[in-house]
Amino acid sequence: MDIVYASLRRKEPEDALPGEARAVVEILWAHALPDEALQHITARSESDRIHLLLYLLTPQHTDGPSGAVDTAHALIARGHHNSPLLKSRYHPPVR
Asked: How far apart are CA 47 and CA 73, in angstroms?
């Protein structure tokens, strides 16, 4: 299992809306692809950002780095690109 920390910065600092962290998790699940092997997501909102932990199943056949950071970034970028909520409240993800 690989665990990747990421965050999205808010466009404007403000209090988190009720259920916002849950909504972000649901958006990411909706955009996850089967080959990304996503197992779990946790999120915590703060006034300036949302913190994310993505739990990804490590491929069994990997001899080198797992690519989990690349996978997590691709998932978050895809979710941001396709979600009106993420686009309106958060800056795009950067590496």
From this structure: 22
pTM, 2 dp: 0.88
Contact 15, 24 (CB under 8 A): no
Tens digits of per-residue pLDDT, 38-70? 999 999 999 999 999 999 998 766 566 568 999
> Which residues are within 8 A (CB) of 66 and not within 5 positions of it... i.e. 6 or more apart?
2, 56, 58, 59
Domain extents in the chain:
1-54
DSSP string across 1-15:
-EEEEEEEEBSS--P
Strand order in the sheet with 2-9: 2-9, 49-56, 38-45
Q: What Rg value do the Cα atoms of the chain yield, rounded?
A: 13
